[in-house]
Structure formats: C-alpha cells, structure tokens
Amino acid sequence: MSDFNSMAVPANVTPLRQRNIFAVASGKGGVGKTFFSITLSHALTKLGRKTLLFDGDLGLANVDIQLGLMPKRDLGQVIDGVVTLAGSTTRYTEGGFDIIAGRSGSGSLANLPPAKLSQLRSDLTDMARSYDNVVIDLGAGVDRNVRTFSGPAGISLVVTTDEPTSITDAYAFLKLSYQANPLADLRIVVNMAQTRNEGQKTYDTLVAACRRFLGKTPQLAGIIRRDMKVRESIKTQTPLLVRSPTSDAAQDIMALAQRITAS
Known about the structure:
The chain is an alpha/beta fold.
C-alpha cells in the first residue's frame, strides 16, 4: 500500500501525459459534465475498451449517486490508508466498466495536502496502464485539484453549453490549461445544444476567443443535442445507453467516443 508521506511526488512536477487518459472538465457546474463522463465511459466500454471512471471531483463526488451505487470502497479509504487505489475500484456491472468513487461532501478530500494529492495522481497514472481508457471526471472550475488531475491526461474534454457564463468559464479553463502546457490537447464538447447548428455556433464563439486572445484553436470533440431522455436516465439512475440507446444524446456521445479513440 502506498505511503503518501514517504512517496510524495513534488507538486511542481508534471506527470507524463498518457493518450489513454481523458480528463473531463468544465469552467462551471451545471453543464452535465458528470453525466457526460459516465456515458462516455459506457460508450468506450461498448466499443470494446476496458475502461475506468475516476471521480476526481473531490469533496463533491456524485458519480456513484447518479448510478445508484453504494460502493464499499472509495477515495476516502485510499487517503486514510485502508485500501490501495487499485483496491478501491467498484465494478459497475450494468455498464461494464470500473469506477473509483469519491466521497460526497468530504471537505477533507477537497483540501488534501499537495503531497497526498500528487501521490494520488501518480498512483492513478500507474493504474491507467492496466486499462484501455481512463476517464477522469474533474471538479468544476480551475482549482488546484482540477489542475493536478488534468495533468496526466492525453486529451482534456472541456464541456460547455450555450450559456454566456458557461462559455466564459470554459474559456478561463482553456486559457489556464494552455498557460500550463502550450501543447495540451484540449477539445471542446458542446452539451445540451438545441440543434447541431446551434452547437456549432457555440463552438465557433468559444474558439474565436481562443484564436484571438490565446492564438490557439482547440478542436471540436463533439456536439451533444439536448434530449429529454437524459433527464429520464438521471432520474431513474439508469445509464442512457441502456435505457435509451437510440436517443439523440446517446448517438452523439457514441460518435464522440469513436472519434477520440481513433485520433
């Protein structure tokens, strides 16, 4: 079992990025980031890829809640030294992928010392070698935890909607990420778009600001259409790709999963 104090990785060391790790970020909450992370993990599994979903929203974790799970092990027990990170996984049988759950409402996880946070990141990077893909559901915003866990990701998927505040906050995340790593592979996901054309307009608005002020053109990862089936899926704690696999949103996320694994 890892000893966080004796094996800590310095907080200023950037881990080697791994192409099989996808970090899902957003500048603000309420854009459907966690639901997207869950459905993306399921989509990757349906493509035949061994997948791990890591709930990196420390302190406000809710992956297990959205799926109606009651994990026997979570990140809190990893931090307490009760189990290793690998030993904290929960198999989500209905989706066919593994989950490392957070501990909802735990301020102690949200305020981890830098050494423990860095070691957790290092352990996750090592563990990723046992999977085809790892999806990290980051917390909203650009705080220390978010920056730490986005570090190892080969691709960061930045989720936004057409709301002006969402676009502004997504731009802030992109700006700070490019400042930290000018070569970062950042891609935009427009969620809850009324139509594909409207989603394209949202992307165009955001990417225009990136080109003008950052000199960067992040790719469009995909547009996910607004779909009442998503709300039904969340209410019933049932995966969208199980409950409504032919719905617009399900098809959009499957197509996105195919694109990012082929790139």
